[in-house]
Structure to design on (242 residues):
């Protein structure tokens, strides 16, 4: 009887020891790094703080368990994480404070070296596109902007403003036409406007006040693929300025 009790006790103790030796680790699907539970919780906490600081207090990051591998002495749980876009509250850019007001005046230089000011353009509506050559959405919408500029060239001033220098723009224009009057090297002015994302499209009425500001041309999901729209929303705004 004593031997039987000893055997059971030994069996339970061995099982308990194996349980103690079994360690759970955590990792992300996109990385080979593994974390202990405490390190994983610390990482998530820091990540959440970073996300909320960047996108606003309503931002939310989700962690989903996608795999769990059990071996003799460990369990590895693999997670994927994503930001819930619908909850993102992006901070408002300063440039939107200019709606129904005039933009700051400045003397710019075009790609041809000609000085120009916004007051030089008074009397007609103005469309201003803010962009740079390494901005893929900016470049993607240029062909549609060109069509609008061609259609309304006699009624509306079309201006583009970039912080890129002359060489960068000239190299870009070797393979891509942009039928806007191009102002270069305007980093200080763009900083003054408070622009932090591109592209931006500013629509100015004949009186010089900003009517509205839009981001890039709207895109749509067609047949499972995202495609650039026709710019019809921009044309509607331009017509309202005439």
């Amino acid at each position: 009887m004593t031997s039987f009790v000893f055997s059971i006790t030994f069996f339970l103790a061995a099982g308990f020891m194996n349980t103690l030796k079994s360690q759970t680790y955590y990792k992300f699907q996109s990385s080979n790094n593994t974390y202990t539970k405490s390190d994983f919780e610390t990482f998530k906490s820091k990540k959440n703080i970073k996300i909320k600081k960047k996108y606003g207090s309503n931002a939310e990051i989700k962690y989903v368990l996608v795999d769990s591998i059990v071996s003799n002495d460990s369990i590895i749980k693999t997670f994927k994480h994503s930001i819930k876009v619908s909850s993102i509250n992006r901070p408002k850019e300063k440039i939107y404070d200019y709606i129904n007001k005039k933009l700051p005046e400045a003397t710019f230089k075009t790609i041809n070296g000609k000085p120009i000011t916004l007051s030089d353009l008074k009397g007609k509506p103005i469309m201003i596109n803010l962009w740079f050559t390494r901005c893929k959405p900016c470049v993607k919408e240029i062909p549609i902007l060109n069509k609008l500029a061609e259609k309304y060239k006699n009624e509306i001033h079309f201006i583009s403003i970039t912080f890129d220098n002359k060489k960068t723009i000239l190299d870009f224009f070797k393979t891509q036409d942009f039928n806007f009057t191009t102002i270069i090297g305007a980093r200080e002015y763009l900083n003054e406007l408070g622009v932090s994302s591109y592209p931006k499209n500013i629509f100015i009425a004949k009186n010089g006040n900003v009517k509205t500001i839009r981001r890039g041309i709207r895109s749509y999901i067609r047949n499972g693929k995202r495609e650039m729209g026709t710019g019809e929303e921009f044309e509607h705004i331009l017509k309202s300025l005439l």
